[in-house]
Amino acid sequence: MEQAYEKCLWGGRFRQDEDQLMQRFNSGGFRTEWLVGPDIQGSLAHVAMQVKCGMLTPEEGEILTEGLKSILHQFQTGQLVFGPEYEDVHTFVELNLIRQVGEVGKKLHTARSRNDQCNVDMKLYVKEQTAWVIAQIDRFRETLQHTAEANPWIMPGYTHLQRAQVVTMKHHLLAYYEMLGRDKKRLQSALEIMDESPLGCGALAGTTHEIDRAYTAELLGFAGGPCKNFLDGVSDRDFVLETMADFSILMMHLSRLAEELVLWTSAEFGFVTLDDRYTTGSSIMPQKKNSDGAELVRGRTGRVYGDLLTLLCAMKGLPLAYNKDMQEDKSAFYDALKVVSGSLQMMERMIATMKVKPEVLRQAVRKGFLNATEVADYLVKKGVPFRDAHGIVGKIVIYCEDVGKAIEDLSLAELKQFSDCFGEDIYPYIDYDNILQKGIKKEML
Predict the structure, then answer these.
(1) Is 160 an annotated catalytic residue?
(2) In 160-239, at which residue ranges do the beta strands (DSSP E only) sit?
(3) Which of 33, 341, 347, 370 is 20 to 30 A away from residue 102, measured at CA?
(4) pLDDT tens digits, residue range 204-259?
């Protein structure tokens, strides 16, 4: 009967099976079936290199190539299941290959190690998924731009969550457009930095076989060629960390926008309403419409931070080269990726379908003395030093609070109590629509 250790790629020097606890503890198989495709992709390139360098005959190479493609098809169609009996994705692929093509399947692993193999798998997967996230960012930016252009309404801008100066909904949404543009650039930079192939680095010191690492790098689409240092090639997880760090900043931006949606949909603000499809209700309060899509994005941001910290802590004390601690990169990255991808899709759909209430925005502008800075600018243009103008307007605001008026509602006589510099031209100068037409503020329109 086949012993469990005989199903392992490393079982030759062992007399006993793993304890079941050790088997479960050691296996990452249940988390990494998404690496079957990249593992076979890397194996196909390795076979092509083996044939090129004379380690396999062309006939053997064809058998292995067809066998690997068959395993991928069987896996994708459910004929082969990556179950808990397999230690990892590499074991799943190689053992099934041997079962299907026979003894020649045992030649597949010549001139490579699981160490360089698993890192090339992860790089291929991270590259592919990072490109997908960038595509999702592009789509969300298009939606933000479209929604912004459709909503040029004036609204309060805030500092310290206090009404500060007049802006537009368009300008507000386009701030997130810019943030996401930086997120895209960071991920593009991460792709460029990681674009070197670890395949051929072996366990940590290369191989004595005459192989062509540049050839496999080219076949796998690594524009930077092969890794220059074997030790670094197998122990590097910077590419996962950098991508997850970029994911964390991206999620921070999505969380800030999510928080604004939560505020804007509350009765206290009432600036927008979200589509029913992205909200939920209450089991006891019939009137409730909760912005749960936004709240979940906000809440799950912490998961991505935690995934990044998990891998940072796993890597911080490791000597060269490979250590099993590095296995934690897979579950951490996969979880972060799913949160990021889902959050981008949710935010894009909420922004695409939300309804803005321009009349509520304008009413909020009138309540916040948002033209106070422009009153000070007016006085400066009349020759008043800015610091004095600042003090004068502060007193005007106190007066307005006491009498229950907005600045623009004060009579000229009331304004002249504070400075003789005021004239009739103050009123068009501090009109909110006119404010946005002045100077550099026109960029908000």
Answers:
(1) yes
(2) 162-168
(3) 33
(4) 999 999 999 999 999 999 999 999 999 999 999 999 999 999 999 999 999 999 99
